[in-house]
Amino acid sequence: MRPRARRRKAALAAGLLAAWALGAAPRARAMTPEDQALVDRGEDALYRCDYDGAQAIFRDALKARPHDAVLSLGLAVSAWWRMENDFALPGTPEEKAFFAAVKGAIADAKAARKGGAPAEGWLYLGAAYGLRGRREASLHHWISAYFDGRRAYKDARRAVRLDPELYDAYLGIGAFDYYVATLGRFIRVLSFARGGSREKGLAELDLAARKSRFSRVAAQLLIVGIDWTFEKKPENAWSILDSLHRRYPDSPLIDSMRLIGLFHLKEGESLETEARADLDKARKGADFYRPIDRAGAHYFLGVGLQMQGDAAQALDEYQAGLRWAPEGQRLRSLLWLAVGEAQDLLGRRDAAKDAYRQALREQPLWGVPRYARFRLKRPFRPGDNPLPARNEALE
User: Fold this and answer.
1) Are 315 and 342 in contact (CB under 8 A)?
2) What CATH number does residue 41 fall under?
């Protein structure tokens, strides 16, 4: 195989390192036009939140080519998207389907690594471990997540050493370098004092966002999260999201991220406007909008109103969101936290405390439990942050 064709094949596999973010689904070989169309359909389906469609694409392809490592990874990435974006709990069918898919992806990647293209093989394996580590991190299984991530990082590094033009690999490499540098001391010790590098990680992620073939969107979304939580650059995050919105104008995922972006920009009026538009899409049954998306739109509409000083209307929206978030859904903890904040703003301290206690009884989402416990001690006041990042001090 010619070097250019091998690099193209490897770049496609490297895209699956988007397991550290929101992942694409590349092919394993130098691509025919039919292969390219399959990849494009799978990636488009994922970013539009058409999880059934994405999984069907890769399942059907695997029937024709069993144990194809890249197709197996594509199926695992699709299962991960559904599980994470539905806030699926441990032990649910969505999680079980993901772990079954990623187990197969690891086995197929190990077989691919022993073939005639070692750079691609290391990428397949690193992507599979990175995908599993991403789930462990979302469950706060930090040690397991760290070791899976470290394995993914090493495998991606091996691939780049074999072929320096695998720019897609820098998504996983950059994510590991950045996050290890920003985690606690204990995790840095596990990395044998090498500790990652914030600056290096950002540069590697930027390289993936600019030069990779199949990981650009995933790298951009990861940078957005970093800009919100760690770098405090909401304007840069908004610029990225605005570009992605032009590419995927009807994606519930991108729509919801824009709402978060407007919150970080402290633009309450614009947040209200966009949340109402998203709520209208959900009410009309727009493609791939689900009840949980409607609940989320009610939440952000409430936040926008609360930011503008209308706590009473905000409370109505939070309570409406609770009606659309099913029992056991993680988003309920965030909605109950918001109910408590609105009750505090309305001077109803006892009702606020009841809401914070209910937030603690729900399945946890993000940093809600920590903040709810804090708010049981200190009332929410005008100008307070509705949900500080987990790395921010509360006192």
Assistant:
1) yes
2) 1.25.40
What is the 3 state secondary structure string of the chain? CCHHHHHHHHHHHHHHHHHHCCCCCCCCCCCCHHHHHHHHHHHHHHHCCCHHHHHHHHHHHHHHCCCCHHHHHHHHHHHHHHHHHCCCCCCCHHHHHHHHHHHHHHHHHHHHHCCCCHHHHHHHHHHHHHHHHHHHHHCCCHHHHHHHHHHHHHHHHHHHHHCCCCHHHHHHHHHHHHHHHHCCHHHHHHCCCCCCCHHHHHHHHHHHHHHCCCCHHHHHHHHHHHHHHHHCCHHHHHHHHHHHHHHCCCCHHHHHHHHHHHHHCCCHHHHHHHHHHHHHHHHCCCCCCCHHHHHHHHHHHHHHHHHCCCHHHHHHHHHHHHHHCCCCCCHHHHHHHHHHHHHHHCCCHHHHHHHHHHHHHCCCCCCHHHHHHHHHHCCCCCCCCCCCCCCCCCC
Tokens standing for 217?
Answer: 């969107």
Q: What is residue 185's predicted lDDT score, i.e. its pLDDT? A: 54
The last residue of a domain, from among 199, 216, 233: 216
Distance in angstroms (rounded) separating the CA atoms of residues 218 and 134: 13
Say yes or no: 92 and 185 in one domain.
yes
In this structure, is residue 313 part of a structural domain?
yes
The number of distinct structural domains making up the chain is 2
The domain of 12 spans 3-216
Does some domain include residue 387? no
Top mean-pLDDT range of 12-26, 99-113, 252-266? 252-266
Considering the domain architecture, whether residues 203 and 273 belong to the same structural domain is answered as: no
Q: What is the rounded distance in angstroms from the CA atom of residue 67 to the CA atom of residue 140?
A: 31
Q: Indicate whether 187 and 265 sit together in one domain.
A: no
Contact 171, 205 (CB under 8 A): yes
Q: Other C-beta atoms within 10 Å of 109: how many?
A: 28
Q: Shortest CA distance to 146 belongs to which of 111, 83, 194, 105?
A: 194
What digits encode the pLDDT tens for the residues 24-73? Answer: 333 334 445 666 677 778 888 999 999 999 999 999 989 988 988 888 88
Q: Are residues 19 and 154 in the same domain?
A: yes
| pTM for this model (two decimals) | 0.85
